[in-house]
Amino acid sequence: MAVIGFGTMGTGIAQTLVQTGYEVIARDIAGDLLKRGLEIIKNGPFGLTRAIEKGRITKEQAEATMSRLTVTVDLVEAVKDADFVIEAIIEKLDAKRRLFTEVDASAPKYTIIVSNTSTLSITAMASATNRPEKVAGMHFFNPAPVMKLVEVIRGVHTSDETIETVKGLAERLGKTPVVINRDIPGFVANRIGVPGMLEAIRLYEENVASPRDIDTAMRLGYNWPMGLWNWRTLWA
Hints:
Number of strands: 8
Structural class: alpha/beta
CATH class of the largest domain: Alpha Beta
Strand content: 15-25%
Order of helices and strands: EHEHHHEHEHEHEEHEHHH
Distance between the termini: 39 Å
CATH topology of the largest domain: Rossmann fold
Largest sheet: 8 strands, mixed
CATH superfamily of the largest domain: NAD(P)-binding Rossmann-like Domain
Number of domains: 2
Radius of gyration: 19 Å
CATH architecture of the largest domain: 3-Layer(aba) Sandwich
């Protein structure tokens, strides 16, 4: 497995993979970013140290998990032997298309390339490669080690075999995949969730209710356990 981009989502995805038993090589553009990502996996709020303290894993299991993770700034090194590449870089289409072209040139012909984008076009990314049938979306939710949902997005040319492979990976990671059959902005979860968040902001701006009460209404009235956009940070 190769994870390209080692920020918030990339570290969470890499951690999820190595905890499941996969060998992972993670790549980012600078050594300090890689160092920060490793620190998050070890000592972050959902990291291995916390898991040891809670008795979920042993110290030996944590060490074995970290031994399955390698980091590099060299993109070719990261993808040259990868069966599966997960892109998790900045949410800008031009940057993702450039990366997909570079990955396509360096990865084996059989490699599947997926994007963790939350809203951008999978078809547009796939068109930057010579393997559009092997390109799909694999949208994890933050924090990736905890959240169960993974959206599996079909581009115009994505093959059924690729979709089934991505679904199978999500299931092996302990996630619940949902297949998005049309490559539309926002896919499903964000397409439904973002309008609710915006309406909540309008209600607050119009002094209809407090952030606490808006959050409570959605958590208890509609059983949204996280509320709206983590509103609790506004009144914690």
